[in-house]
Amino acid sequence: MAVALIGDGPLDGVARLPSIMGPFTVIALVVMIVTMAMCCMWFYRANANLRAAGIPLKHGPTMAWLWAFVPIASLFKPFDVMREIWSQSMELSSGHTPKAPPLMAQWWGAWVVATLSMNLSGSRHVVDTEMDRFVLTPIAALAGLTACVLFRVLVRQVNTAQHERAATSVFA
Predict the structure, then answer these.
(1) Is residue 7 part of a domain?
(2) Which residue ranges traverse the bilayer (predicted)?
(3) CB-based contacts of 160, cutoff 8 Å, min separation 6
(4) Would 1 be classed as within a structural domain?
(5) What is the number of domains present in the chain?
(6) Which of 8, 22, 121, 160 could disulfide-link to 136, CB 3.0 to 4.6 Å?
(7) Is 76 within the bounds of a domain?
């Protein structure tokens, strides 16, 4: 068996994986905290911009970001907040309320998959198993990266719509 010649057994290299991944895990955690803070700030500002334009919203600026930290509600309320911010921002720039794009559902689906797989990966029944290393962690990483890319697209759309509205109201 060719794999057995490399180490003591077929999974010898995998046994050393946690020691190699330690620094990357710390870096990933720091990046995640910074990213979460920036997203919360963006939700607050985007919501506050709409309120400053005189648009009544269901969620206030503080709750726009705080929902992400409320258990159970964090699985659906941030999506509602984003849909409200996106729809109202697009209405500001176009004059009509468009339907939320499929991209938004894809973003939220990827975020939920990433969150649930990270939580399962941290479960005491799964930690340091092949299921954790080869299934849950890669799924969490890919879904999280997908969610970040899609979120960036949505943020750019909202920012563009809000900037266009601000520019037209200044020169009107």
Answers:
(1) no
(2) 24-44, 64-82, 134-155
(3) 93
(4) no
(5) 1
(6) 121
(7) yes
